[in-house]
């Protein structure tokens, strides 16, 4: 990784440095290889460490780098394409590779934005099912599925207040519904502490937030908020299935 003159570059220094670093990642580093520390990189390129950090953060945002606890900054593998169509976001309770795996369930007061989408009072408890999505043993996403009681009336007869059994019962009842449609939004966000731990990321790391509103019988019957790792995932939309394709 050689040096370069940045003083006369009209664009922001960190942006040009990001391009130079990206070229170096392609030509000099292998996937998983650890980069030199910030002090060494800053000295090599003749930039302030603040400028270097901006460039590294941008490369992380673009999925070229990963910051790993206790390891450092490493070269990231290519992103995988993750289907988020009906099949990928289905409610089948499975444990196979590249599928949503149910973790637990409980009753909670929904976040204000979720309550708004559900058209319910924020103080009214709803069922919350927590699921994770894995690929080759690595976490790709964590999902919280919020379901109002009226969407799963048959659940009242099930004497399981919380835990995995309750979560599976909620999913089983949801599968009885005939969905009329769904509405999805995607936005860039930062990993909260609990999401970061579940996804093996650092708090504040870039994530993709996919919010899905499911409609049946003319009303919203469930809202899912899925947090995807922005460094490893490339979201694809449609009903092509669950397969993860190399990015």
Automatic annotation (TrEMBL):
Membrane-spanning intervals of the chain: none
Assigned keywords, A-Z: DNA-binding, Transcription, Transcription regulation
Keyword Signal belongs to the record: no
SUPFAM superfamilies from the UniProt entry: Chorismate lyase-like, Winged helix' DNA-binding domain
Domain of life: Bacteria
Pfam families: GntR, UTRA
Matching InterPro entries: Bact_HTH_transcr_reg, Chorismate_lyase_/UTRA_dom_sf, Tscrpt_reg_HTH_GntR, UTRA, WH-like_DNA-bd_sf, WH_DNA-bd_sf
UniProt entry tagged with the keyword Signal: no
Positions of the HTH gntR-type domain: 11-78
Protein name: GntR family transcriptional regulator
Record lineage: Bacteria, Bacillati, Actinomycetota, Actinomycetes, Kitasatosporales
């Amino acid at each position: 990784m050689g040096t370069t003159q940045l003083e006369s570059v009209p664009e922001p220094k960190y942006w040009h440095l990001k391009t130079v670093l990206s070229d170096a990642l392609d030509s000099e580093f292998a996937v998983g290889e650890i980069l030199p520390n910030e002090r060494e990189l800053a000295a090599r390129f003749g930039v302030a460490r603040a400028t270097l950090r901006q460039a590294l953060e941008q490369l992380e945002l673009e999925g070229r780098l990963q910051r790993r606890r206790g390891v450092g900054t490493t070269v990231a593998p290519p992103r995988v394409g993750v289907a988020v169509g009906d099949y990928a976001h289905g409610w089948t309770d499975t444990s196979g590779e590249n599928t949503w795996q149910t973790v637990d369930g409980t009753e909670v007061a929904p976040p204000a934005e979720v309550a708004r989408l559900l058209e319910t009072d924020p103080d009214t408890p709803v069922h919350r099912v927590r699921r994770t999505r894995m690929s080759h043993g690595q976490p790709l996403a964590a999902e919280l599925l919020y379901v109002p009681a009226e969407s799963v009336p048959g659940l009242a007869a099930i004497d399981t207040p919380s835990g995995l059994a309750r979560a599976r019962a909620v999913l089983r009842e949801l599968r009885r519904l005939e969905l009329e449609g769904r509405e999805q939004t995607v936005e860039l966000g930062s990993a909260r502490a609990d999401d970061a731990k579940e996804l093996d990321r650092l708090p504040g790391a870039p994530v993709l937030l996919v919010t899905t509103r499911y409609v049946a019988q003319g009303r919203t019957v469930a809202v899912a908020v899925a947090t995807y790792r922005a460094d490893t995932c490339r979201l694809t939309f449609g009903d092509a299935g669950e397969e993860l394709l190399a990015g």
